[in-house]
Amino acid sequence: MGVITRSAYATSFSLVHSSVHSRTEAELPALAKAGSLVSFDFSDEEEFRTPAYLDRVCPQVDLATLSCSHLEEAATRGLLAEAVRRGAGMALATRGLDGAIAHDGRTTAATPASAADPDAVRGRA
User: Fold this and answer.
1) Do residues 19 and 45 lie in contact, with contact meaning Cβ atoms separated by under 8 Å?
2) To which H or E segment does residue 120 belong?
3) Sequence-ordered list of residues with C-beta below 8 angstroms from that of 113, at least 6 positions apart, any chain
4) Taking CA 91 as the corner, what is the angle to CA 56 and CA 87, rounded to the nearest 5 degrees?
5) DSSP class of residue 106?
6) What pLDDT, in 10s, does the model give residues 55-91?
7) CB contact set of 115 (below 8 Å; sequence gap of 6+)
8) 51 vs 20, 72, 107, CA distance in Å?
9) What are the φ/ψ torsions at residue 78 (nearest 5 degrees)?
10) In whole angstroms, what separates CA 73 from the centre of its chain?
């Protein structure tokens, strides 16, 4: 029996999710070519939002997720547009108590955060 590479294993799924902390950037082109949907978490560190990094990763991902609770809404919308302009199919910003915003290059949708039912979270619902 042959050795299964990490990329071959990952492409056996219809959706593959990775992040800046997984150090899988070099494998993203193979994942994108294999037909799996690829989502990628860019976290909230500025080093992963530079034009060079976005140019390297965004063209390989269907969904770019970015933590943006530290940004104003206008800056968040600008970052989402930038990720899509640089190749991501869609970009989603999570904003903590300020909800979430998604952008696909044509449409932007925002939703407020909603409080979780503490009993449901504890499994008592």
Assistant:
1) no
2) helix 118-121
3) 95, 96, 97, 98, 99, 100
4) 35
5) S
6) 999 999 999 999 999 999 999 999 999 999 999 999 9
7) none
8) 15, 20, 23
9) -65, -40
10) 18
How many whole angstroms separate alpha carbon 123 and alpha carbon 125?
6
Which of these, 56, 55, 62, lies nearest to 40 by C-alpha position? 62
DSSP secondary structure string for all residues of 38-84: EEEE--S-GGGSSHHHHHHHGGG-SEEEEE-TTS-HHHHHHHHHHHH
Q: Is 2 helix (H, G, I), strand (E, B) or coil?
A: coil
Residue 85: which H helix or E strand, with range?
helix 73-85
pTM, rounded to two decimals: 0.85
Q: Which two tokens stand for residue 42?
A: 């860019």
